[in-house]
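Discussion board: Methods & Data

I've been asked by a reviewer to show the raw model output for two of the constructs in my manuscript, not just the figures. I'm not sure how much to include, so I'm pasting the format here to get opinions. Each protein appears as its amino acid sequence followed by a line of C-alpha cells. Is this the kind of thing reviewers expect to see in a supplement, or should I convert it first? Here is construct A:
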Amino acid sequence: MTKERGELLHGTLEMLIMQTLTEGAQHGFAITRHIRSVSSDMLTVNEGSMYPALYRMQKRGWIDAEWGHSEKGKRAKYYKLTSAGRRELRAASQRWMRFTDAVAKLMEPQTGGGE
C-alpha cells in the first residue's frame, strides 16, 4: 500500500523548521526526520530544499547555527531559533491559520445559488 505524500506550499517549510526548533537546537537531518515523523510520513523534505531554507533563515536572523557533534559522533551544524525567529513563527502561524480557515470555508458544501 502506498502513502500519498504532500508537497509543501511555498513558505511553509520555514514555518515547519521554526516550529521544530522550538523544541531545541537540531541539525538539518534531525529537523528533516522530525518533520517526516510528526507528519506520519506525509511531509518529506529533501536536502535540496532543507539546507537552502536553513541558509535563508540564518541570513534573515531567524536562526543561529553552531558546530557540534551528532548522535553518531559526526560533526554537524546545529540550528537554534532566535528571538526574531520566534516572532516570525508567531506571525507565520497566524497567516497559516487564516489561510487554512479560508480554504476550509471554500471546501464546505455551499447552500443555494450553486449548480
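Construct B, same format:
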Amino acid sequence: MGADNGDFSEWRRLILHELESLDSSYKNLQKEMHEMNIRLVKTQTTLKIRSGMWGAIGAVIPVIGAVLFIVVKGI
C-alpha cells in the first residue's frame, strides 16, 4: 500500500507540473494573440488611410484634366 501511495504522489506531481505548464503556455498564447490583434488593427488603419489618399488622388486627376481643358479651350 505504501508503494501505491508513492506512485500516486509521483503522478500527482507530474500532472500538476503539466497543468502549470499548460496554463503558462495558454497565457503566453493569449498575450501573443492580443499583440497580433493590435498589429492587425494598426495595419488596417494604415491601409484605410492609404487607400483614402489614393482615392483622393484618383479623383483629383480627372478634375485637373477638366480644368485644364476648360482653360485651354477658353483661350
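Answer (T.O., handling editor elsewhere):
This is acceptable in a supplement if you add a one-line summary per construct. For B, something like: The longest helix spans residues 2-74.
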